[in-house]
Specification:
Radius of gyration: 50 Å
Structural class: alpha+beta
CATH topology of the largest domain: Beta-Lactamase
Strand content: 15-25%
CATH superfamily of the largest domain: PAS domain
CATH class of the largest domain: Alpha Beta
Number of helices: 14
Largest sheet: 6 strands, antiparallel
Shape: elongated
Length: 561
């Protein structure tokens, strides 16, 4: 492989293949990672959406019971309710019966209003503790048999078996917890063993259990809110208890015994509040599935699951597409590379020659190839580099001869200008004798302004003086020689009008000082002007020295006055 075309061809094909393999591999890997992350987020979002629906439903019931509890507490504050147990006299029992009857009537009325404005409940009740010493049992309303609430026989606490946890958990669970709790699903004996979820709360008065108050919903109501959820193609939602055991599943009969979800997952994982953005997968019937869940208000867990094959289906299709595109790209670019090798050689040689001239400092070299290929891009880049170098050198020259504060030319520029004048003076016998004058300006009171008002005020003072000089001598080069000194070289029309311009400068100085509102805005300048005298002056420096001497004489006169 000796020809440049063969070398470029080999390198190009190798680069294309390496790039395709690298980018394809990275793309497939990244796509897999992104697919896992996206699927975990999607399942989490679906489970959270179900959770929000169910929690909104459960929270409304919880709030309704809480309102009823507060009303019951308020009613008890005004009632003459005293715990009797088994030791009350007939008069005390009668008094307690009357007080509790009145209390239950008030709570029943308020609780009924709340229940009628709470969607999705099946019952509401207040079961009075018979051990309190009264024959009052509370109330029980249900709409299981009709679309409206009808009053039923009250629930009697003495008829509840504490050992029958399957049916009486609604009563004994809040007593055990000592606070309002969610219970269920369980078979409610007072609803014909229908699977029920309840929010119940114990009511205490003066440290004694007065009764249990609560609302019931049918477990089917919660399930119905989950059935319409779409999870990919064959995925589904289900419910677990707080320990991760399944209590509802599309393949289970409603009301069946809780079953272990899967042995593939650690029990600690299923006991967490949610999977969050973690990727949780398990095997079911020989197929890999992905799971996400979060916890409801009543401590149940709503979960969604889907086969991993459905999640990765698009990923597999995209991987095949990437492989196909890679083959097409390789074939296409190999053909194109063969076709353009000859076209590349000539402009590449021209670019090589031009770059050598550019490296030698020839910034006027022609770089006129306008092809749209890599050589064209490289040519334009060289052309931009050439132009930038020219601008950079020009900018350096400008900065080297410009005063930063005032923007006029600096002392270096003045010396260069004097050098050109000296050359013109030396050639005066052979060519036209130059005509020019030099004015030296010195800003009086600069040290006083700096000392009294600060250097920023002094800078303003110098800038105003410079601006005034530039305005008057706007056809002549102005130089700052350093510190408080400026110079102007008068030629042509400014040279012809030098006396008038000097008077105009004094007039403008007076006008500016009259309009000044601060001491550093008043300009006071001593100036000395010297005119080039052919035959007498052998250099521009002699003219400069006379102008300098005249300026210092004016400055002494200013100080004496």
């Amino acid at each position: 492989m000796h020809s440049i075309r063969t070398k470029i061809m080999a390198v190009t094909i190798a680069a294309i293949m390496t790039s395709i393999l690298a980018l394809g591999g990275i793309g497939v890997l990244t796509m897999g990672v992104e697919s896992d992350r996206s699927s975990a987020e999607k399942l989490e979002l679906i489970s959270e959406n179900i959770q929000q629906k169910l929690d909104a439903y459960l929270d409304s019931i919880q709030q309704s019971v809480s309102m009823a509890i507060h009303m019951a507490d308020d009613s008890l504050d005004d009632a003459d309710v005293v715990y009797l147990g088994t030791s009350g006299t007939p008069e005390e029992v009668e008094r307690l019966d009357s007080a509790l009857a009145k209390h239950c009537q008030e709570v029943e009325h308020a609780f009924g209003s709340i229940a009628n404005n709470t969607n999705g409940i099946a019952t509401y009740y207040y079961c009075i503790n018979s051990g309190y010493g009264s024959s009052e049992h509370g109330f029980f309303w249900s709409k299981m048999d009709s679309g409206t609430f009808t009053k039923q026989a009250p629930l009697i606490s003495t008829e509840l078996d504490p050992n029958d946890t399957e049916h009486t958990t609604w009563y004994y669970s809040p007593l055990k917890a000592g606070r309002p709790v969610w219970v269920g699903p369980y078979r409610a004996h007072f609803l014909g063993d229908v699977w029920t979820v309840s929010y119940v709360a114990p009511i205490y008065h003066n440290g004694f259990l007065l009764g249990v108050m609560g609302m019931d919903i049918l477990f089917d109501t919660m399930i119905q809110l989950m059935k319409d959820v779409s999870v990919y193609d064959t995925g589904f939602a289900f419910l677990m208890d707080r320990d991760g055991n399944v209590i509802y599943h599309p393949d289970m009969e409603v009301g069946g015994e809780p079953v272990q979800f899967t042995r593939d997952l650690d029990a600690k994982t299923l006991k967490r509040r949610s999977t969050g953005d973690e990727l949780v997968r398990y095997t079911r019937n020989g197929e890999e599935w992905q799971l996400a869940f979060c916890t409801l208000t009543d401590d149940h867990k709503v979960a969604v699951t889907v086969p991993v094959s459905e999640i990765t289906a698009s990923q597999r299709q995209l991987t095949l597409l990437i492989l196909l595109v890679a083959v097409v790209i390789l074939a296409t670019f190999t053909t194109i590379t063969l076709l353009i090798m000859n076209a590349l050689t000539k402009p590449l040689l021209r670019l090589t020659s031009a770059s050598q001239r550019l490296a030698a400092g020839d910034y006027e070299v022609e770089l006129n190839y306008e092809g749209k290929d890599e050589v064209g891009i490289l040519t334009r880049a060289f052309r931009q580099m050439r132009d930038h170098l020219k601008l950079y050198i020009s900018d350096l020259n400008t900065k080297a001869y410009t005063d930063d504060m005032t923007g006029v030319r600096n002392k270096g520029a003045f010396n260069a200008y004097l050098g050109r004048l000296d050359a013109a003076v030396r050639l005066g016998g052979q060519q036209d004798t130059p005509e020019f004058a030099i004015i030296i300006f010195d800003c009086n009171r600069l040290k006083q302004v700096n000392d009294q008002y600060g250097h920023s005020a002094g800078d303003i003072y110098l800038q105003k003086a410079c601006r005034l000089i530039c305005q008057v001598y706007d056809h002549s080069p102005v130089f700052r020689l350093g510190g408080d000194e400026f110079a102007v070289v008068l030629q042509r029309e400014d040279y012809e009008n030098r006396d008038a311009l000097e008077r105009d400068f004094q007039r403008r100085t007076d006008e500016q000082n009259a309009a000044a509102t601060h001491p550093w805005e008043a300009v006071n300048v001593s100036m000395g002007m010297a005119v080039f005298e052919p035959g007498k002056d052998r250099s521009a420096d002699q003219v400069l020295k006379r102008a300098d001497a005249l300026m210092y004489a004016a400055k002494r006169q200013y100080k004496e006055s």
